[in-house]
Each structure stands twice: as C-alpha cells, then as structure tokens.
Amino acid sequence: MTRLETDVVVVGGGAAGLLCAMTAGARGLRVLVLEGSNRVGKKILMSGGGRCNFTNTGTGPDNYLSANPHFVKSALARYTPWHFLELVERHRIAWHEKELGQLFCDDSSKLVVRMLLDECAQAGVRVETQAAIGTVGVGDDGRFELDCRLGRVQATRLVVASGGLSIPSLGASGFGYRLAEQYGHAVLPTRAGLVPLTLSGKHQERMDGLAGVAFPVEARCNGQAFRNAMLVTHRGVSGPAILQISSYWQPGDELRIDLLPGHDVDALLAGWRHDRPDAELRTLLAEVLPRRFAQRLTEVWLPSRPMRQYSAPQLREAATLLRDWPLVASGTEGYRTAEVTLGGIDTREVSSTTFESRRVPGLHFIGEVLDVTGWLGGYNFQWAWASAHAAGSAF
C-alpha cells in the first residue's frame, strides 16, 4: 500500500476545510485536503442563488444556536467579517450588500471557490477530490493514519471539516459524527435547520391553491421572532422568515405569524370602519395582503362583511388574529432541502481557541460538524471562516 506523510490532513473541501488548509499551509505546514465528492466547495457554489452570501457584517454570538452558547465568542472575535472581506477584495471579487448586512458576490460564487483554491495553491496545499476515507486510526507514534484512494496517509494533525447532514445530494454524510464518537466525543441530536415547514390534514387543505403567494410577515416561536418574507408552497410554507424560525421550532411547538408587521392593525381596522363603512373586509385586506391570501383568510378565519357591521369587540378579535395568526406545522422538509444541520459534536469537549479535541491530541473539529448553527444570511459561512482560521492558526 502506498504511504503518504504530511503534517495536516483536512477532511472536507468545503468552506471551513479550504480556509483552514490555506491558513495552515501559509504557515509552512504540509497540508492535504481530502474531499469525498467530485469537487470542492459545492455548498459555496449553490449558496445565495449562485452568488454566495459569503458573510454578514452584523455577525455576533447571538446569531448562533448551540447548547454551549459561549463557545463561538473567541473565534468570531478573532476572525471577523472584515477579515474575510479583505481577502475577497484582495482577489478583486466585486460584492454588494443585499439586506440586513448580507454580503454577496456581484458575479458568481465560483469566484469564492477559485479564491480559496488559489490561496491553497499559493500555500502549497494539496487538494484531492473523490478521496472518501475508509478507516481512521492513531499509530504508535501518535500520528493519525487514514486509508483512502491515495493509500495510507499519515499526519500529525487531523482536522474534521466534513459538515453536517444537510443536502445529501451535495455529498453530505455523517462521517464527522461517527469519527467523533469513535474517539469518545458526545454528539448531540441532529435535525434539519433553515428548512421549509410542511403542513398536513386540514391545515394543508386551508392553504390549498395558494402556492406561490409571498408577502412580508413576522414569524414567532419559543421567544424568537424574524421579520421577512413568507412563501406558501405546495407542501407548506417557506421563505426567509420561515427558514429562520424553523431552527427554533420543533413538532408540537406553537408557531404564530404577524401577517401585517409594521402596521398598527387596530388603528387600520378602525380607520376602515370610519372612512369606508360600506367596503367589505375582504376587499380592504386585499390592499395590504396578496389578494388570494386575503380571500382565503376571510373564507376560513375572518368572516367578511361590510366594515360598518363589525362591533368594536369583533374588530379587536380580527386585529388579534391578523397580529397572531396560528400556523400549525406538522414537520419540515428534512435534510433534503435544509441549509444547515442543528446539533452535532458537543463543543464542551473541544477547545474554543484551537478547536482541538480535549480527548485526542491533534484532532480538530471545525465548521458545521460542531453543535453550532447560524441564522440565515451569511452567518454560517462566517462561522466556517472563523473556526477554520482559529484551527489553522493553532498548529
């Protein structure tokens, strides 16, 4: 069997793996990246509609979910969105801010992958695709030994940047979790995050025929609230507001939607009754909501009649429903369409400074494989960059 010796092996050629590799390589270390699929950076390529929402200028610890919420602070403080933006500008990649601090490429996400590969090449990093790993062990000399199509690879450091379970069509697998458990690490339960919600039974029937309708809402669940667009789909609901709240929702949890965020709904209804007493509620709601949705709302939840026929208590009830519309979801679309994986390797057994295992010297975990999940809007890429830089600087 062919033997290959190197200083660092990085498992996974995604955002975290490539930035860690180039960081370590730039410090003079021999680095080998092993990517199991046929190309690196697949999630980068498909993100942001092909334009890669590569960071968010508002990134802070509060934008992440973890059982150990303090874990993210050190890495995020040491490698900020401005550090990555400097790299982007150095490679003359044009960018723009879309909304809420989200930064995108003007052109193609391919430029971000090319930038990372160019940095790796400059640092002497070797990148191999279709290099799925068989067994992993530790030799008598304390070095890691991995079997893959290159033969047996030996390294002083092993960095696991293999991601989570989301979007298996891009090559996602549970390799990182299995490896962590092999060495005694706890893996917290995983589930799909930033994912569309599904409806069933009468709740789906009530939304039948509304697929494609989208409008701004505020989605609330378990003390969290996100204001952005909601999209009705054939299976349930999606859109940024729903994707965001999905990370905080689990089956059985109460989910409420403000259908008219930013409006004083009581004043709106009272004004309609005063100024347009003969107009039907259905007609007036169609001026502030999509017509099809307003129609369905007044068929199922709010009986429509001329405004002068509503009593003050009835208007208050209508306002409450518009502010606090109940959405009863049955589940999610799962890992197939989820942008991230919630849960993962318990961070209490990993150094927040070096990302080294507290159980196995030389073993590091970075990126999505850890129990750290960011909001929608560039936060997960920033976690990839920050955790990767911290580990790559620590060897």
Automatic annotation (TrEMBL):
InterPro entries from the UniProt entry: BaiN-like, BaiN-like_dom_sf, FAD/NAD-bd_sf, RsdA/BaiN/AoA(So)-like_dom, RsdA/BaiN/AoA(So)_Rossmann
UniProt keyword annotations, A-Z: FAD, Flavoprotein
Entry keyword Flavoprotein: yes
Segments forming domain RsdA/BaiN/AoA(So)-like Rossmann fold-like: 7-393
Residue ranges annotated for the RsdA/BaiN/AoA(So)-like insert domain, each copy included: 191-340
Nuclease found in the keyword field: no
Cofactor: FAD
Pfam families (UniProt xref): HI0933_like (PF03486), HI0933_like_1st (PF22780)
NCBIfam families (UniProt xref): aminoacetone oxidase family FAD-binding enzyme
Name of this chain's protein: NAD(P)/FAD-dependent oxidoreductase
